Amino acid sequence: MDPKETYSPLNCPKPVAEGIWIFDGPMIRMDLGPFKIPFPTRMTVVRLGDGTLWIHSPIAPDEDLFSAVDALGSVRHVIAPNSIHYWYMADWLERYPGARSYAVPDLATTAKRPFRIDHPLMDGARFAWESEIDWILVPGTKVSEAVFHVPSARTVILVDLIENFEATKLSSPLMRFMLKLVGGLDPNGMAPLDLRMTFRPKRKQVRERLQGVVDWQPEKVIMAHGRIYDRDGAQELRRAFRWAI
User: Fold this and answer.
1) Backbone torsions φ then ψ of 7, nearest 5 degrees
2) What is the pTM of this model?
3) In this structure, which of 8, 69, 175, 196 has its CB flanked by the most CB atoms within 10 Å?
């Protein structure tokens, strides 16, 4: 693993706002045609008002990681926020069997690594943490994604609806070229072209839902891959979602 491609130090809490931390994880490699594309990984932890933790897009299990999380509070909620970000859910639910699990609806039938789903993230569902965290489901044909907002911290949390890879962290010139071509290269991060195309059949719904995300008017935006936006969040969302709204 090339250390410059990750966001070291790994598996430790990095504060983003009051009661919100990110944990950067190890690199994974995703298939893109004949290529293996390196993806940095990241999860987000929110401490709720009762002191329990809400875990978004959990990363690869590691004892040091678990210890660092335990130091922040008791894990109560674990979230699989889209149709791709679920692989480590089973590990986290094994480690924290008392936690409740939440996942976008299609994972009940499409997950290649099954895990327990206590609460589908479907329209009309109500959850214990909703008084502190807003959410909107953006429906797609192959990938659906739930986007979250912590109003008290003016922070939006998502995974792939914006990817914002930094060129300085990409050792491959081909990777830099491809990301510039299809979208996802900092400072102009957005969903990559192939993902955007899967939303087209539901573009009216997608437009309405993404406009709802922009209407939250956040200051910060956390994504799973690449540099987060620590200011001007609403402006960045409007720019990144211009393909749909």
Assistant:
1) -115, 70
2) 0.94
3) 69
